Amino acid sequence: MASMLMNSLRCCPPVNPAWAVQYATRSLSTSVQLHAQVQTKSKKTLAKPGVKNIVLVEGVRTPFLLSGTTYADLMPHDLARAALQGLLHKTSLPKDAVDYIIYGTVIQEVKTSNVAREASLGAGFSDKIPSHTVTMACISSNVAMTTGVGLITAGQCDTIVAGGVEFMSDVPIRHSRKMRKTMLALNRAKTLGQRLSLIGSIRMAHLTPELPAVAEFSTAETMGHSADRLAAAFGVTRLEQDEFALRSHTLAKQAQDAGLLSDVISFKVPGRDTVAKDNGIRPSSMEQLAKLKPAFIKPHGTVTAANSSFLTDGASAVLIMSEEKALAMGYKPKAYLRDFVFVSQDPKDQLLLGPAYGTPKVLARAGLTMDDIDVFEFHEAFAGQIMANLKALDSDWFAQTYMGRKVKVGAPAMEKFNLWGGSLSLGHPFGATGCRLVTTVAHRLLKEGGQYGLVAACAAGGQDSGRTEMMQEKTVYAYTHRVE
Amino acid sequence: MSLSSTLNGSYLTPRLRINKVLPYFTSHTETHVSPKIDSSRTHVNYEVKEDVAVIRMNDPTSKVNTLSVQMQNEMIEVFNEVLANDAVQSAVLISSKPGCFIAGADINMIQACNTSEEVTKLSQEGQKMFARIENSPKPIVAAINGPCLGGGLEFAIACQYRVATKSKKTVLGTPEVMLGLLPGAGGTQRLPKMVGIPGAFDMMLTGRNIRADKAKKMGLVHQLVDPLGPGLKSPEERTIEYLEEVAIQCAKGIVNKKISLTKEKGMMQKVQDYVMGIEFVRQQIYKTVTAKVMKMSKGLYPAPLKIIESVKAGLEQGPDSGYLAEAQNFGKLAMTSESNALIGLYHGQVACKKNRFGVPERPVKNLAILGAGLMGAGIAQVTVDKGIHTVLKDTTVEGLSRGQQQVYKGLNDKTKKKTITSFERDFTLASLTGQLDYSGFEKADMVIEAVFEDLNIKHRVIKEVEAVIPPHCIFATNTSALPIKDIAAASIRPEKVIGMHYFSPVDKMQLLEIITTDKTSKDTTASAVAVGLKQGKVIIVVGDGPGFYTTRCLAPMLAEAVRLLQEGVDPKKLDALTTGFGFPVGAATLADEVGIDVAAHVAEDLGKAFGSRFGGGNVEVLKTMVEKGFKGRKSGKGCYVYTPGLKSKDVNPDIEDVLGKYKLTPNPLVSSDSDVQYRLVSRFVNEAVMCLQEGILNGPVEGDIGAVFGLGFPPCLGGPFRFVDTFGANKLVEKMKRYEEVYGNHFTPCQLLLDHAKDSSKRFHK
Description:
The complex is a heterodimer.
Chain A: H1 2-11, H2 17-39, E1 54-61, E2 65-66, H3 76-91, E3 100-104, H4 115-122, E4 131-134, H5 140-153, E5 159-166, H6 177-188, H7 192-200, H8 223-233, H9 238-257, E6 267-268, E7 274-275, H10 286-291, E8 312-322, H11 323-328, E9 335-345, H12 354-366, E10 375-378, H13 383-393, H14 396-402, H15 423-426, H16 433-448, E11 452-457, E12 463-464, E13 467-468, E14 474-482
Parallel strand pairs in A: 3-4, 3-5, 10-11
Antiparallel strand pairs in A: 1-8, 1-9, 2-8, 5-8, 6-7, 9-14, 11-14, 12-13
Helix pairs in contact in A: 3-4, 5-16, 6-7, 8-13, 12-13
Chain B: H1 6-9, E1 44-49, E2 52-57, H2 69-84, E3 90-95, H3 107-111, H4 116-134, E4 140-144, E5 148-149, H5 151-158, E6 161-165, E7 171-173, H6 187-195, H7 197-206, E8 210-211, H8 212-218, E9 223-225, H9 235-255, H10 267-276, H11 279-297, H12 302-317, H13 319-334, H14 337-351, E10 366-370, H15 374-384, E11 389-393, H16 397-416, H17 422-429, E12 432-435, E13 446-449, H18 455-466, E14 474-477, H19 484-488, E15 497-502, E16 511-516, H20 522-534, E17 538-543, H21 550-566, H22 571-581, H23 587-594, H24 596-610, H25 619-627, E18 640-641, E19 650-651, H26 655-661, H27 673-693, H28 700-711, H29 720-727, H30 729-743, H31 751-758
Parallel strand pairs in B: 2-3, 3-4, 4-6, 5-7, 6-9, 10-11, 10-13, 11-12, 13-14, 14-15, 16-17
Antiparallel strand pairs in B: 1-2, 7-8, 15-16, 18-19
Helix pairs in contact in B: 4-5, 4-13, 5-6, 6-7, 7-11, 11-12, 12-13, 14-28, 15-16, 16-17, 21-24, 21-27, 22-27, 23-24, 24-25, 27-29, 27-30, 30-31
């Protein structure tokens, strides 16, 4: 509340009439909630003295499509461009009003390795706006956002566009190392004789292409395999996983039908139709799910194609500002971005257990408990991984043995958890998922009238034909949001 | 002093237990069938989960499960109950001990037998028991986590189905051959059918451990289960539970015919089966394998031949003859001196893997090694992957980078063999710091110096190091002959000085000889032993003196070898005679491996210390060779000429001149092939016994282990002390007296040996 008062005072001298009107509407629209907060004493503000309030103004994403479908002929920056243009359109942001643009991505297209720059130029942003690309496996766009938060906190910037993009319809497939070595030597060869002898040294085996790694670099284990072991370690049954997958698809379908997925922008794909909806949502039946064979650990594994997230193309973008600037520009922010924490664990046995480690930490930083949180959005890499994380959060033994805590924080209530679907059903474009999670929390808080939201995701890297795979280390990123 | 040994480097593996047979199988039928845990049983119990009986083994008296009498009796009882229980359709056999299925059987059971007939009977009872398992109307699934060796493997392959965890600890194998025995409970009969004739021979003749993934490829196990990480229980506990769950699914799958026990054969398999069906091909295989065994064992080891014989009997004359041959051969082998010697070595090795000096006050976490030569880098290589931060210091960039490359190569070779991943290699190397100065030595808990063997240099080094290390830091010196007390003379804290004599190549040779002086403190010794054990070494702790134990035993033998060369024995002939006696490396090759310069150095030093007793060959022979640049393998020329890339080697033609200059006339009375062998061996053995007499050695066990694992003394003889026991001290003394007449005090038997010769009841080993 203090921050609100301060803001009102600070913002009182009207600079811009249009802003004044917007600000007024904003106050009106949130006043009911504000009164409610006053009554519930536990629900305090998370503002910290001396720290700038940072807000999420808007978040958008392209529809998430199964890779190899309508987006198949694009390039990654095309998708990112679409998301950026969507954001510009939705916010009416002047193209030169941004201080910095940051994008997250995992599998990099070599031609556009700084995809943030190519996309922002292509989206028509001013060429005076610097931009860079970050990568941290499945939480790359979370890193893009927190980097922006850091720049604002440090006083470097006021307005940041952060986003993420992943394009699995095309991945860099390389020549073999031996072939590359020969080709590079060929570049340096001076005489015809040298060239001919190099060409003569090429063997059939050199022509075997090199696919992006299907396995974790440090452990040589694929992510699906790790997820199956994790599920087994926590005793998650096949039935539980299939039920959770079905829940995700069912809830996503409901949200889509109810028009709740308002962050999705429609995108006219050049040479193709306009795409306006995610196309991976496929509510099925338990019987059908039960028919599938395990995809990674055969024959007794429990992770199947249906209870894993699928390879997805998509991009997302968010507009993050200091509250002061947002209000000055007449925006009605959707949420405060209050806190975050990144954690890492053993990449072999705890690869996908980040949320279990990160959630208690971020709660502790904010001084909140599980019960205080109104909205949970966890990244669903695998149904088995989600269930394992929930079980870990709900285990005193795990809290004591592995997290150095006296007691568990408890598992999130399912009636607050991923209510509009998740990565299993909506899709998981590695680099883009983080912004989707944060935007969804903001939208759900507004829709459901909650105050605090929490995002958690696990990460690793790589890809495999047909399903999501893993990345370099297990890192969790958790975030609390609050609207006041 | 270094020597490379192919045979003894891998001759005995830790933790192996011999297969043992189950005792007679009582067919008493229990009327009272209870699925509840019977508390009167302590080793084996079972519970019924739905229609699957889960049979759990756990020997409460030991860290590992063995097929002890009690285990077997209870197993039979449980097996009968399971068969009689109508609610049970199938069974799962599992160990509730984390990290061990069945490590084998108790060797003592066989050693308790006095005749081969008794052992044969044991074998037959085991065969009968496993035959019942094999023919069980209710399918039994063996769920394997941890070692499944010897009798444990024979038990598992009698079951209808096998599931194993893909853990590094899960290994399958038939190590009986390493104890001079054979798989005596049906192993020689079932394995060829299961993994093919060549695969079965490979397993049984090498005795090597097979990891789970390889076992799956070979057809030894049907299904693999991944080890699990942390969950709601400890990883070990949950992994066993998971293994049990999967095994239960398999058992049910077999009963309801979802899993077929007759696996479909691939094209390759069909072709192989067809080829193996031709008698001529099988005969060729027996011939080839026998020839290979004879070449490698020189016919000194009876077990491999008996294994081939038993397999052949089963395949050519049918199962009845096969099982009979197996049981009879098992009985015969158990009574051989070779088996006795190898079992003795096994016990000795177990004893030398313990720290009898207790737990050191502070564990060594930071180790610094001085000198990045072959030795220094080798020590670094076996240390850095044990969670000890290792500093490798040299004086020149060239020397250091050579050493670092050696460590890298050692680890990278493991990566190529896929025993570690490239990530594990890099992670391990992160614990290695290469440097040219003493920075960071203030954190060192132990310094091992491996600099040049020169007392002055060692003194300089010890002073430099003591100026920078903390007070608790131990100074260990890796020397092969310089007395530790002489080195410690330069130290301001001699209680922290100790000798650690490694053998080259350090990553292959299992032995570490630790040398203590009168002043070395007990905690210093405990710490050195603890580090050595971490490095995976078999350790003997000996007293100080010129050449300690190992070098001192080797020196007279090498002196004798030089004399033989001077007497005109061709190096190849000398090698053939020594390997024919059971040494893995011939005496001439050994000299080249050790380095002629090192040999000359040691011969001169020890000659000075021990006087004319260490004479024999003329040291000048070695010195002249060194002058001419014939320093052994490292210089490309020694007794032999070494061409890089070539395995075969020719005698160095130039040593003719050298030897000609120092030519001696052989005495025909003591120059027969056998005499040549005993001249070499008796000097070795006499010196070993003298080390025990003088208290350099703690006991005959360490003497045998040191000689076999450090110097390649024939494993089939079990070491110098067991050799004296088996051969007879009186016979040995008799031979030595004959040689003494010709050569004088080189062959004078020591007092302790004479005592044993006089009183045949005196034995080194009980």
